[in-house]
Write a structure and sequence with these properties.
Elements (H helix, E strand, L loop, with lengths): L1 E2 L5 E9 L6 E3 L5 E8 L6 E3 L5 E10 L16 E7 L11 E2 L1 E5 L6 E3 L4 E2 L2 E5 L8 E3 L5 E2 L1 E5 L3 E3 L5 E9 L5 E3 L5 E8 L6 E3 L5 E2 L3 E4 L6 E2 L7 E2 L3 E5 L3 E2 L6 E2 L3 E5 L6 H8 L7 E4 L21 H16 L8 H11 L1
Parallel strand pairs: 1-3, 2-4, 3-5, 4-6, 6-7, 7-9, 8-11, 9-12, 10-13, 12-15, 13-16, 14-17, 15-17, 17-19, 18-20, 19-21, 19-22, 21-24, 22-25, 23-26, 24-27, 25-28, 28-29
Length: about 350
Amino acid sequence: MVSIDGVQTITGNLSAQNNAALTGIEAHDLQTIGGLALGNLTTLSALDMPLLSRADVVNFTALPELQTMSFATTIQKAVSILITNTQLTTLTGINVSAVDTFNINNNPALTTIDMQLTKLTGPLVIEGNGYGHNITASFVDLITAQNMTFRNCTEVLLPSLANVSQDLGFYGNSFQTFSAPNLTTAGGLIFNDNVDLTNISLPSLTSINATYQIANNTQLKTINGFQKLSVIRGALDFSGNFTNVTLPALTDVAGGFNMQTSGQFDCSPFQNYKTNQVIKGTFTCAGSESKPGTAGTTPSSTSTSTAKKGAAGQLQVNVLTMLGVPSLMCGISFVAALLRLVL
């Protein structure tokens, strides 16, 4: 046990690294510190700083015996927080309202993250926490953020979030529904490999400034929670086994458009968007795909489209091939006759 009593302020860092014999640190009078960096302390089980309210940098790495933090006053101000590979069961003692970087990952005993955070000016990462990835991430007061990544969460709560300047991404989570009722703009928006997801509701979202991707969410059959989405300044990239997608307010897709699904799907509304120059980039839309793919993949030959013009064109090629007639020998009248016979 290391005791640092009588010290109220440390303008620099308090750092302890690579010490297998250190079982505890106590600083009963410490109120503010520049940085608190603890790493690879395999027997550290006690951390007692009851008056600490500000730490510009909190960096806890590889603390396999640390289950709780005794920060009775609570750290309310910080610039950067990284907590990884600990046995912490709670983050009680840290509750900041603003932070640049917030990264909580690979803490298997941690089942809840609940912060009063209102402003995030750098990246937030929540991943690999909770036994069996059973964790709730709650940021009910968060309004603005730069970049947010959520992996392996059972619930994510962002009811006040209004703006994300870069990406908002959800990967490999197990929640069934996600809602951000006040989100109006995002840099990029990604839902990938969330196998239990059945519903997404972003009723106030009007613009996405980069990629908009929904991919490999196997239970997501209907995508209709984006009723006000008007502008996508990047690409739209949907793939999965959905059967219904509605984007009624869409006026501009600056990048490419990829929509592939294994379900029965009507591409005609989106073909109209392409025809009317709402979609500016490359256009791919296919239903009944055996292997629906993300942007850059070509639909298989078994894909179908409900657009009548495309279906007739496919039928024409098949009939000509079946009859063994070279395409260069076919005049317009011959093709028309064949189509009359078939139809």
